[in-house]
Amino acid sequence: MAHDTTVLVLGGGSTGCGIARDLAIRGVDVTLVERGNLTGGTTGRMHGLLHSGGRYAVSDQASATECIEENEILRDIASHCVEETGGLFVQRPEDSDEYFREKLAGCRDCGIPATVLSGREAREIEPYLAEDVARAIRVPDGAVDPFRLCVANALDAERHGARVETHAEVIDLLREGDDIYGVEVRHDSGPGKRTHATPGTTEEITAEYVVNATGAWAGRIGAMADLDVAVRPSKGVMTIMNVRQVDTVINRCRPKGDADIIVPHETTAILGTTDEEVDDPDDYPEEQWEVDQMIDTLSELVPIIEDARTIRSFWGVRPLYEPPGTGTQDPTDITRDFFLLDHAERDGVGGMSSIVGGKFTTYRAMAEEIADHVCAKLGVDARCVTAEEPLPGSEDIAVLEEGMDSFGLRSPIARRSKQRLGSRAPDVLETNENEANPVICQCEGVTRAEIQDAVEQSGSDLNAVRIRTRASMGNCQGGFCCQNMANELHPRYDEETVRDALDELFQERWKGQRHALWGEQLSQAMLNYALHATTMNRDNDPANAPAQVDYAQFDGGA
Amino acid sequence: MAITDDVLVIGGGLAGATAALAAAETAPDARVRLVTAKQSTLRHASGLIDVLGYAPDSEGQGQEQEQGQGQTPIVDPFAELDTLPTGHPYERVGGEAVRDALEFFDDIAGDAYAGGHTDKNALVPTHGGTVKPTARYPTATADGLASDDRDALLVGFETLPDFEAPLAAAHLEAAGAPFDARGVTLSFPGIVRDDAKVTRYAHLLDRNEQVAAAGEDEIGAREALAAAVESHLEGEPRVGFPAIVGDDRPAAVRESLADALGVDIFEVPMGPPSLPGLRLEDLLYAALEDAGVRMTSGVPVVDYETGNDAIDHVVVDRNGAEIPHEAAQYVLATGGLVGKGIESGRERVSEPLFDCHVPHASDRYDWFVDDVFGEQPYARFGLAPDRELRPLDANDDPEFRNLRAAGAVLGGYDYAAEKSGAGVSLATGYVAGTRAGEESE
Questions:
Q1: Model confidence at A403: pLDDT above 80
Q2: Would you say B211 and B235 are in contact if contact means Cβ atoms under 8 Å apart?
Q3: CA B364 to CA B43: how far, in whole Å?
């Protein structure tokens, strides 16, 4: 039987995109399907920490060792996604000396460069650290942009011939007897790039082998073929500050606990997190106390956070897993290691493996191991090169830095654009001399050329444009720029499509702001509401209203 | 020694300016002073004077309502004023006061504004493309009304991403506007930087600066703009531009363009920074000067003293020096959440100058609903006044005998949903200022 594709990867997060890239480079014909946008599940909902491994140096040394190895690889192959911030494990007076010593020893055991700083030395690096911070361990933690990294993997997979379908939700696994041979998907707006207001279609995609890389949703996919994949989804909150109170990753040096990390991320700092098991990865409470806990507890490390402005909060769901019978009660004790479940070996059902557990920093190593496994199944003899081959955007970065071309942009904007685009900057920003390239998003310094490049990749989906460019992710949370981003869709897309795309983005931006509605951000929210409702009348737009407006009734002029 | 006035208005937006003007008119011999802490929010405002575009609390509106199931706009806002719920600022001051306030505004605005010839709302296309109901509009916008069935050419500029003219034209069609609209996107003569400020466009036209023209020597910016538009005209009798058509001399610029093209010219109101909003501010400040209102700007009120259930004096901070200001009557017009006349923390919403009572839910997760355009409780935050516009405390007693409040610092209405912001500022500013003037004597 002829298949549509050799390997079908389910899930467009870091794991799925990493597997698709790895296999595609090895010459395997790959299709990837994702129900929403790339990173739409857990990948786009993490704190952006590139682990040094320090966090696991006491509790899970195998993971810690793997983290430091992958940390070094990503600095190399994904340099345009990584900011080498460094990290501190900070000890307060009430935190245990013994644990501090264990942490230091653990780092050294795992090959994680670690140095001890006095409280004063730590405050020289991070002046806003609390006065009573006793000492700290310095490690090579970093910040990573999960959106950019994931999209770069998908782009490179496509360059190597892969088909990547977003907004294609798996609605059934195709199983015949003890063999899984593909899936049925529902395309939100037909195959290819997403276009709003286009009717959906369904498609059966058959494959020689299926890889279920849907993380916290893996159990749901398994159930479609009566397979039991006991993922234990665990939610965690992250609260985004409007500026960077710190330029170094700040970890609390104590065994485990909620609200113990601050990650500087682009223009913001992200506070995290909690760890609480949930039943349904799509439907769980997002609660006030979780946000308050982030602010109150992390203020013990960085006191100015208490009164600082947050712009939104979001929750992510970890795809935790442990083998049947382990019986761990507290989700914080469940291993962060990943598991490859070969359903042929495990359940006697061939044609599919599921990947569960794992963490973002080690996505590439996971992908390599899974790709090796799939290649063995398929009899493909090709070596993994993803540890050496830079991702699109991280190629020839030295050449870019030498050139320092500002592409006709004012220097802060050019600098930000180049940080985001890396080595793709000349391709994207070198617009025709006669074409204007105004700034579309002032907060993040995103120009028309960058927006158009993202639209080219992702269709009319403005959230997909957002994750590629950071447009609408700054202080105003899209109040000033959402409609300008939507304007950029025209005339490629018609007016109704643009209107739908704008409504969807604006509502998405509101979703996270609901958890930051006090102080400056409540004022900002009111301003955004006023601009969009008062001036643009988007809340009562006659174009959306069921009843036709009788224009002749109104003032037609003096 | 305190600086002594009869009426002290705090806040320099539309409500504060109107209150000061009304006080000065009511009590010609009174000393009226306006103190402002910072730039007003008029730079965010479209410059349109809304009275009431949609009914509040009407059936079908609210949290459960799906987006896209909007109401139709109110034709005659004045006819609806008596139907508003108790506590709405219009209900507090009464429908007659709203009419009086609009007349008062019409006198101040003179020929800079239009719409006073009828009680009916106008439907004005704004930069997003659709129309919004409003009661008064700048003369610059008068030829753009959507009930006017003449065809229109909309002109946008490559370097002004806030207004995508072809998209706006298509949006007007989707909104059912009774005329054909077309849009074109041009490059603006004389704009060399992609991130030029809107005032740069306006000043090019104001001063008719010499700009490079194709195949010619330099010509005036107005002629160059008209020439760029001319080849795109297909017989439309009116042409709309984003609201950058002049800053200091908008009428002259429109006239030049109209003469050159043989069409009527109108402006499409834009988002911030909004020149029509800033022109309205200029107009108000000129009127304040003419009326002899004393102006002190850049001075936040930092403290106050009371006596006898009344405010005795307030203290302002002038470059670090604390200066007492004493008056018989005070008007608080410091704005809402946007203007920072209303502030909030994680636990509480407050009025920062006098700590007047602001009704609100104690749980901040009850301050919002999940639909961004649903019935948002936060949009109604503000002071609850009596019919004299004196802010009431939690027991419904006036906070101070001689303090009135006007504009967005008042609560109980959602100006964004109702399209009532400017109207409430005018009506409450007018009433608060008039009463303060009367009682100061």
A1: no
A2: no
A3: 29
- Residues of chain A contacting residue B425, judged by C-beta atoms under 8 Å apart: none
> Which H/E stretch holds residue A277?
strand A276-277
Q: Which two tokens stand for residue A84?
A: 């080498």
Burial class (CB in 10 A: 0-12, 13-18, 19+), A434: exposed
Average pLDDT over chain A, rounded to whole? 93
3-state secondary structure of A463: helix
**DSSP alpha helices (H): ranges in A341-444?**
343-347, 363-378, 397-403, 411-421, 425-429
The ipTM (two decimal places) reads 0.96
- Domains of chain B with CATH codes: 3-110+278-337+397-440 (3.50.50.60), 129-268 (3.40.50)
- Per-position b or e across B153-188, b if 16+ CB within 10 A of its CB: bbbbbbbbbbbbbbbbbbbbbbbbbebebbbbbbeb
> Between chains, do A538 and B123 touch, taking CB under 8 Å as contact?
no
Domains of chain A: 5-42+147-230+336-378 (3.50.50.60), 83-142+233-317 (3.30.9.10), 397-535 (no CATH)
Q: Scanning every residue of chain A, which has its alpha carbon at the shortest distance from the alpha carbon of B173? A: A543
Nearest-CA residue of chain A relative to B347?
Answer: A518
**Model confidence over B254-295: pLDDT tens digits?**
999 999 999 999 999 999 999 999 999 999 999 999 999 999
Chain A residues with CB under 8 Å of B344 CB are 517-519, 522
Enter the tokens of residue B155: 């002109």
Residue in B127, B128, B195 closest to A438 by CB: B195
Neighbour tally for B273: CB within 10 Å: 12
Does A557 contact B145 at a Cβ distance shorter than 8 Å?
yes
At A14-73, the pLDDT tens digits run 999 999 999 999 999 999 999 999 999 999 999 999 999 999 999 999 999 999 999 999
Digit-coded pLDDT (tens) for B373-389: 999 999 999 999 999 99
Q: How far is CA A174 from CA A178, A231, B212, in A?
A: 11, 22, 66
Which chain B residues are within 8 Å of A541, Cβ to Cβ?
68, 70, 130, 175
In the numeric block, which tokens belong to residue B20? 């000061």
Q: In B, which residues are within 8 Å of A522 by CB distance?
A: 337, 344, 367, 378
What percentage of chain A exceeds 70 in pLDDT? Answer: 97
Single-letter amino acid, residue B313: H
Top residue of B123, B137, B154, B167 to mutate, by most chain A CBs within 10 Å, is B167
On chain B, the residues whose CB falls within 8 A of the CB of A429 are none
B338 to A527: CB separation less than 8 angstroms, yes or no? yes
**Residue among B69, B166, B378 minimizing CB distance to A525:** B378
Farthest-apart Cα atoms in chain B, separation: 77
Q: What is the DSSP string of A52-86?
A: -SGGGTTT-HHHHHHHHHHHHHHHHHTGGGEE---
**Farthest-apart Cα atoms in chain A, separation:** 84
Contacts of A510 in chain B (CB under 8 A): 372
Sign of CA dihedral B380, A311, A13, A400: positive
Are A558 and B345 inside 8 Å of each other by CB? no
Cα(A431)–Cα(B128) distance, integer angstroms: 27
CB within 8 Å: A488 and B53:
no
Nearest-neighbour CA in chain A from B435: distance (Å): 29
Calculate helix-pair angle for A363-378, A14-25, nearest 10 degrees. Answer: 50
Taking the CA of residue B223 and the nearest CA in chain A, the distance in Å comes to: 22
